[in-house]
Design brief:
Elements (H helix, E strand, L loop, with lengths): L1 H5 L3 H9 L2 H14 L4 H25 L3 H8 L1 H34 L5 H49 L15 H10 L7 H15 L4 H30 L10 H16 L4 H34 L8 H18 L4 H27 L12 H25 L1
Helix pairs in contact: 2-7, 2-9, 2-10, 2-12, 3-8, 3-10, 4-8, 4-9, 4-10, 4-14, 4-15, 5-6, 6-7, 6-11, 6-12, 6-13, 6-14, 7-10, 7-12, 7-13, 8-15, 9-12, 11-12, 12-13, 14-15
Length: 403
């Protein structure tokens, strides 16, 4: 058991990347606006996306190749699509998660720098961490981040339950009117966009270089990470329910402003003595996302570049992480006023491309590229088919509502 725990890594990195805006902002808001009424939405999203994220780790450990290698073998068109989609969204996503992290850092450390300065500082700190140790240091540090995040969040929930004087209903509801768009955003990003399955496959391969892991151990690692994302999604929904539901507070659509309101309301409701638990839970949530996304996007782009541009070896991890850092700082400095539009574009692309990634991942793990003994069982295949139907209908529904 101890040896298995030492081999944990990619699954926790998945948790670190997934537990971000979808949990801190959207799950909390779901609880604040609907109590436990959207628990069904959280459950369905995690259930139907489970196979496609798992296929990333399964394919990598069974074939010793990343999903990107698999996409290339299915056809270079798929790889080009991934390349352009990633290029279109990675700067915006990095900027969005860093802004929220910066806002929480300002609250936690009590240093009143403007958000742009904080955002640049956090970006450079993450760059330094990754540049010095790349995957090895990320693999080590994420375990401590996830432990702190999980403990502080669970403690915060117990404190909130103990302080609450209201009886809470578990009656499930379906939002009406403009709230349907929120439901679409909540389910679309819970627990994370499906392209993170690519990151999962790359992290699994990196971990395998350092410490050989079997398919069984790799899937155990993935399941631990996925269970943590579900648990913390429920915890943040519970915090919203027990602290905010029925408070009448109107929340900002800005992630950074929302984060400030979140901390202020928790502190006001639970008391100043509980402030540190809430602040640490919120900050570690977003810092883990900022750190893992800054690693994952360059790692994916490096692999994609090597498959598409064989004669351009300078398009390596260092090139892409510097480009992502410069692009992110550029958005902070010059395009911050356009963040709402940029995030909306990235969100829509994540929604409408989810069936694309789901289909490719399912096709790969049931193809001749996978050893028969390592292919998923009939139950998981059936669940993935249901999940694919769900994602297609979800994308169509979102586009209908958005237009």
């Amino acid at each position: 058991m101890i040896e298995s725990l030492k081999k944990l890594g990619p699954g926790l990195l998945f948790a670190g990347a997934a537990i971000g805006v979808s949990h801190l902002v959207q799950s909390t808001r779901a609880g604040a606006d609907f109590g436990w009424g959207l628990l069904w939405a959280l459950a369905l999203s995690n259930l139907f996306k489970y196979p496609f994220f798992q296929f990333g780790a399964r394919y990598a450990l069974a074939t010793h190749k990343s999903l990107l290698d698999g996409y290339a073998q299915l056809g270079k068109t798929y790889l080009w699509m991934f390349f352009f989609l990633s290029l279109a969204t990675m700067f915006t996503i990095q900027t969005a998660v860093t802004i929220v992290t910066a806002s929480l850092a300002s609250i936690l450390f009590g240093i009143t720098l403007d958000l742009v300065t904080w955002s640049i500082l956090i970006t450079l700190v993450c760059l330094f961490i990754l540049w010095m140790g790349s995957f090895s240091i990320l693999d080590k540090i994420i375990k401590w981040i996830i432990i702190i995040l999980t403990l502080s969040t669970v403690i915060a929930v117990f404190l909130a339950v103990g302080q609450s004087q209201e009886s809470v209903s578990f009656t499930q509801v379906f939002p009406q009117g403009s709230s349907i768009l929120f439901l679409a955003a909540f389910m679309g990003w819970m627990p994370a966009p499906l392209d993170i399955s690519v990151w999962q496959s790359l992290w699994a391969l990196e971990k395998n270089k350092d410490k050989k892991i079997s398919l069984k151990e790799g899937l155990f690692d993935y399941n631990i990470g996925y269970i943590i994302t579900i648990l913390l999604g429920m915890c943040f929904m519970g915090l919203g329910t027990y602290v905010m539901y029925g408070s009448g507070t109107s929340f900002s659509d800005s992630g950074g402003v929302f984060a400030n309101q979140l901390i202020d309301l928790y502190t006001l409701t639970l008391g100043e003595s509980f402030y540190i638990f809430i602040a640490i839970a919120a900050f570690t949530t977003m810092f883990s996302t900022t750190l893992t996304t800054l690693d994952a996007s360059p790692r994916a782009m490096e692999k994609t570049s090597s498959l598409l541009f064989l004669k351009l070896p300078f398009l390596n991890y260092q090139f892409w992480i510097i480009l992502l850092t410069i692009g992110t700082i550029g958005i902070f400095t010059f395009l911050l006023s356009e963040m709402g539009t940029l995030v909306q574009i990235a969100t829509i692309l994540s929604f409408i491309t989810a069936p694309f990634y789901a289909y490719l991942n399912l096709k790969l793990v049931t193809s001749d590229q996978m050893p028969k003994k390592d292919q998923p069982g009939k139950g998981l295949i059936f669940l993935s088919i249901l999940g694919l139907i769900f994602l297609i209908l979800f994308a169509i529904g979102f586009l209908y509502l958005a237009v």
